[in-house]
Write a structure and sequence with these properties.
The protein is an all-alpha fold and about 250 residues long. The protein is about 80% helix and about 0% strand. The protein contains 11 helices and no strands.
Length: about 250
């Protein structure tokens, strides 16, 4: 029940409350945004893969290729790396953050070719062993993911001394990996909504900029439109499976 007899709040008091509260919100978002997002990424990975990992990997019949285990470990390590880096920045261990960054660069260098190879291997496995249709056309999704992730991380390494560029590029690249766990939800997968979910995650970075900096960093103006175009092209290649893409996947899969 509302307090109908409460004393009205004057505009002066409201203004004072706004000026005292807004900096606190900005300070909190500034300090904790990337750390909070790292925990959200971890939660999405656990939640999404918990739906399929038992039947799809641990107790799969027939057993999945061993390289899939390596692939899963590498991508889980990236999420752990993102959490660690966000934590180190939060506790002002910048030198350790920079040192560990070279591990991340090496890990990303492995993840890109590993992601491409496992995509091809699993497309063959799903087609030959599981007798699934459309596995060849679906190659457009993981291949685009690896191209986008590799390009973003390469730019992040190039601009590693420009923190405003570097951290946003790593953040966007990590958002791009979340289609694997998000796509484990049938409704999201069947209706091609997984990329929209990733774009919403990236959009939180825009919200962060508006709250903290009161402007959107130009990285988002360049990266997001390019990613959205690539995402829609990948979905078209998967769902429509045009003849030129069929010819390419036939050559890839042999």
């Amino acid at each position: 029940m509302p307090f109908v007899d409460a004393e009205p709040v004057s505009p002066a008091v409201l203004s004072e409350e706004r000026t005292s509260t807004t900096p606190q919100i900005r300070r909190f978002v500034h300090q904790y945004f990337y750390f909070s997002m790292s925990l959200l990424f971890a939660a999405l990975v656990v939640w999404g893969f918990s739906r399929t990992i038992n039947a799809g990997l641990f107790h799969a019949a027939p057993p999945r290729p061993f390289l899939l285990w390596i692939h899963g470990a590498a991508f889980a390590a990236w999420v752990a790396f993102f959490i660690a880096q966000s934590t180190l920045v939060r506790v002002h261990k910048v030198n350790v953050h920079r040192f560990l960054g070279w591990f991340g660069a090496s890990l990303a260098t492995v993840m890109v070719p590993l992601g491409v190879v496992i995509a091809v291997i699993m497309a063959r496995f799903d087609t030959v062993q599981l007798h699934q249709t459309g596995a060849d056309a679906f190659l457009s999704i993981p291949l685009f993911d690896m191209i986008a992730f590799g390009a973003l991380i390469a730019l992040a390494i190039y601009w590693r001394k420009r923190a405003e560029f570097h951290r946003r590029l790593v953040f966007i690249a990590t958002c791009g990996l979340m289609d694997a766990p998000v796509g484990r939800f049938d409704f999201v997968f069947d209706h091609n909504l997984f990329y929209l979910c990733l774009d919403l995650l990236m959009g939180l970075g825009i919200v962060r900029d508006l709250v903290v900096d009161r402007r959107v960093h130009k990285i988002y103006f360049y990266a997001l439109p390019a990613l959205i175009v690539g995402q829609n092209l990948a979905i078209y290649m998967w769902r429509a499976n045009p003849s030129w893409w069929r010819a390419m996947t036939h050559a890839i899969l042999g």
